[in-house]
Amino acid sequence: MNRYTIIVAGGSGSRFGATIPKQFVALAGKPLLMHTIKAFHNYDNAMKIIVALPAEHMSLWQDLCLQHSFEIKHLAIEGGSNRFESVRNALETIKDSKGLVAIHDGARPLVTKELIQKGFETAEMCGTAIPAVPVTDSIRQLDRQGSHTVNRESFVAVQTPQIFNLEILQKAYTADYSPMFTDDASVVEFNGQSVTLYDGSSENIKITRPIDLKIAETILIDRK
């Protein structure tokens, strides 16, 4: 079965506070995004990898690849104004209608080969695979009356890679954009398709703030 990966790296990184988008910030000596791409290449070096980037930073990425002698084959495309449009732009480059496609956040560079494999195996059996981890903090629900405690065991935190049968995802992305689409699972569910969860990893963090970068560097050192 053919496998594809779409890496969404179109964010501005405004919360990160750097002068360049966070996907280009150095992690262990090279741009964070390169770690993410390498993770999927290490899982399957024949798999087509598509990277959706901000249009205004395409040349920066090309310069970084030259600077770091980054030679892992991938297709860099211009993303859209939001995640939904970026994924749809990437899907349009896949001419196949059979197989599996993983959608992954460019800012999750610590994804492991084992987690990727588990996701593809789940999607091959079930058609969809969404990684999730338990919520460990106490959480409260906000409403018009204020807030109230909810049972955290009824909730999970969702990660990527989210992996789908190509036909399921292609059909889902014929929909018009909605602000309710927070990830690819929500797009698929809007199309009437249920999704299957699989165990994510507490190390599969998304780099959002400078402290996350320090945590990621520590994890990378521990893995050596």
UniProtKB/TrEMBL annotation:
It is an enzyme of class 2 (transferase). The record marks 15, 22 as: Transition state stabilizer. Pfam families: IspD. Its EC number is 2.7.7.60. The keyword DNA-binding does not apply. Keywords: Isoprene biosynthesis, Nucleotidyltransferase, Transferase. GO terms for biological process: isopentenyl diphosphate biosynthetic process, methylerythritol 4-phosphate pathway. The keyword Glycosyltransferase does not apply. It catalyses: 2-C-methyl-D-erythritol 4-phosphate + CTP + H(+) = 4-CDP-2-C-methyl-D-erythritol + diphosphate. The record marks 152, 206 as: Positions MEP for the nucleophilic attack. It comes from the Bacteria. InterPro entries: IspD, IspD/TarI, IspD/TarI_cytidylyltransf_bact, Nucleotide-diphossugar_trans. Pathway: Isoprenoid biosynthesis; isopentenyl diphosphate biosynthesis via DXP pathway; isopentenyl diphosphate from 1-deoxy-D-xylulose 5-phosphate: step 2/6. One of its GO terms (molecular function) is 2-C-methyl-D-erythritol 4-phosphate cytidylyltransferase activity. Catalyzes the formation of 4-diphosphocytidyl-2-C-methyl-D-erythritol from CTP and 2-C-methyl-D-erythritol 4-phosphate (MEP). Belongs to the IspD/TarI cytidylyltransferase family. IspD subfamily. This is 2-C-methyl-D-erythritol 4-phosphate cytidylyltransferase.
